[in-house]
Amino acid sequence: SSGINAEYGDFTRGDTDYYTFWRNEEVGEILCVEMHTGGSDALLVYKIKVKSSFTSWVDIYNTKGQWLSRDRDEGITQDKWCVDECAKDLPLTQGAWQLDRNTFDLPKAQITTLDPWIIESHEMNATDSTEDIETEYYASGYSHQRMTFTKTDGAPISGSLPFSTSPANVVDDAAVVDDSVTKDFTMGAQFVEVKAQNEWYACRAPAGKKVRCSARMDRVHIKVPFVQVWKRGSCMWFVNGFFERTGDGDLYQHIEEI
Fold first, then answer.
1. Burial grade of 109 (CB within 10 A; 0-12, 13-18, 19 or more)
2. Which of 7, 13, 20, 228 has its CA 20 to 30 A from that of 143?
């Protein structure tokens, strides 16, 4: 059928009607359908069987036997039916659902060492000197921790979805969960933590040598899969995705002979 219209024989008592809808986007797993009516004739649908080009057939029933009609004496103008009662409160929204637990798949973490951030750099040349040459300098900057939880699949989400959990980090070249802290995140939004760092350093070139002294922060990036369990009452849904963190280490001095 090209549309849903009772004037063309749709919704005849006892019949099964078939429709095809075209959309240029992936709708994901079908969990619910919403029925709307603009007509005053009462309609009682028993079941909707629906699939997409990416999913198999799903049967969704009118479990409450709700009539649809624009006439309030006969029914309601719209209703939402789902594969089960827990799906009726989807998508996950702020305040309605609570994060029960967040689990990182640490063995699958991807760790990348990035180029260090050079705050200050000084060269000391004692190649023509019989004595060491030394100077002091002051380095000041800000380290950043940039973290993001990105959903890839699972239960649908509407709007911003805040939650609190412990982030993943890199310690001794290994992915770990930093259970010592809990931070407030929002799904899909970058969390940024800034820390001021400053220090005085002494840069010494031994007699007959030339050195470069640099105040720097090491940088590392980690990407690790996560699975979250969200609950509301007895209902539970899963959200899968990736957690990414780009972090600056503490300020330190690196000395190299040049």
1. middle
2. 228
* Spatial separation of the C-alpha atoms in residues 157 and 230, rounded to whole Å: 11
Q: Is 198 helix (H, G, I), strand (E, B) or coil?
A: strand
- Taking alpha carbons only, the member of 128, 139, 131, 136 closest to residue 215 is 139
Distance (Å, whole) CA 170 – CA 114? 13
- What are the φ and ψ backbone dihedral angles of 31, each rounded to 5 degrees? -110, -30
Contact status, residue 104 vs residue 78, Cβ threshold 8 Å:
no
Query: Could you tell me which residues are beta bridge partners of residue 145?
Result: 193, 247
Q: What is the pLDDT of residues 77-119, one digit of tens each?
A: 888 888 888 888 889 999 899 999 999 999 999 999 999 999 9
Query: What percent of the residues of the chain are helix, what percent strand, and what percent coil, each to the nearest 5?
Result: 5, 55, 40
Do 155 and 115 form a contact (C-beta atoms < 8 A)?
A: no
- pTM to 2 decimal places: 0.74
Alpha carbons 42 and 6: distance in angstroms, whole number: 11
Write out the two tokens for 145.
């921790």
Q: Are 68 and 45 in contact (CB under 8 A)?
A: yes
Pairing of strands 210-232, 174-177: unpaired
Decide: 60 and 83 in contact? Cβ < 8 Å: yes
pLDDT band at 2 (very low <50, low <70, confident <90, very high): very low
Distance, in Å, from the CA atom of 251 to the CA atom of 247, rounded to the nearest integer, reads 12
Task: Find out whether the peptide bond into 225 is cis, omega within 30 degrees of 0.
Answer: no
Structure token digits, residue 137: 């300098």
Q: Which residue has the tokens 């689990």?
A: 103
